[in-house]
Amino acid sequence: MMQTLDIQSQLVAFVYAESRMLDEGRYRDWYDLFADDGVYWVPTRPEHTERDAQVAIALENKMLLALRVERLSHPRAFSLQPKVRCMHVMQQPEVLCADADGGLSKLSTQLVYMEHQAGRQIVLGARAFYTLRPAGASFQIVEKRVELLNSDDFLPAIQLFI
C-alpha cells in the first residue's frame, strides 16, 4: 500500500510540475516531458475517443510540439509581442490508475486556464487527462488530452499550451 501511495504522490507532483513549467514559460523543459510517441490533444468534443478519426482543436505529436516550442522562443514571432503569459489554476489531480510495476498511469484534473497579452485575456475551463509512463526516476507524457468546457463555441486564438 505504501508503494502505491508513493507512486500516486509522484504522479500528482509530476502534473503540478508540468503545469508550472508552462506558467513559467519553460517550454523546452515542458517539451522534454513528452515521450517520443507522446501526443498533445485538444478534441473538439469530450466524447471523441479516436484522435485520428475526428477533427481536433489541437493534435500534435512530438515533432509538431517541437515546431511550436521553437516558434515560442523565436525573436521574430511577432504575434507573441508583447509577451504572452499564462496561468493554470488546477484542482488537485486525481489518480485514475497508478501502475507501480512500470506500466501506464492515468490522471485527470479540472483547471481554469488564463492567457494574457497586451490587455487581451482569455479564460477557459477545462479538464485535462494525462497518460504517463515511467522514465528513469520520473515519468513521460504519453498523452495529454485537454477537454475544453466550451469546445463547441467560437474559441479565441490560444497562443500557448493549455
A few lines on this structure:
The model has no long low-confidence stretch (mean pLDDT 92). Helices cover 24% and strands 41% of the residues. The chain is of the alpha+beta class.
List keywords for this structure.
Nuclear Transport Factor 2, Chain: A, seven-stranded mixed beta sheet, 7 strands, 3 helices, 162 residues, alpha+beta, 24% helix
Which whole number gives the mean pLDDT? 92
The total count of helices amounts to 3
CATH domain topology: Nuclear Transport Factor 2, Chain: A
CATH class: Alpha Beta
Low-confidence stretches: none
Radius of gyration: 16 Å
Structural domains: how many: 1
Series of secondary-structure elements, N-terminal to C-terminal: HHEEHEEEEE
Task: Give the helix level as a range of percent.
Answer: 10-25%
Shape: globular
Helix and strand content put the structural class at alpha+beta
In terms of DSSP E residues, the strand content is 35-45%
The main β sheet shows up as: 7 strands, mixed
Number of strands: 7
Distance between the termini: 33 Å
CATH architecture tag: Roll
What features would you describe in this structure?
This protein has 162 residues and is an alpha+beta fold. It starts with a helix and ends in a 14-residue tail after the last strand. Strand 6 (120-135) and strand 7 (138-148) form a beta hairpin. The protein has helices at residues 2-23, 27-32, 62-72, and strands spanning 34-43, 56-61, 85-90, 94-97, 105-117, 120-135, 138-148. The model has no long low-confidence stretch (mean pLDDT 92). It has three helices and seven strands. Strands 1, 2, 3, 4, 5, 6 and 7 form a seven-stranded mixed beta sheet that branches. The chain is globular and about 45 Å long. The protein has one domain (2-148): Nuclear Transport Factor 2, Chain: A (Roll), CATH 3.10.450.
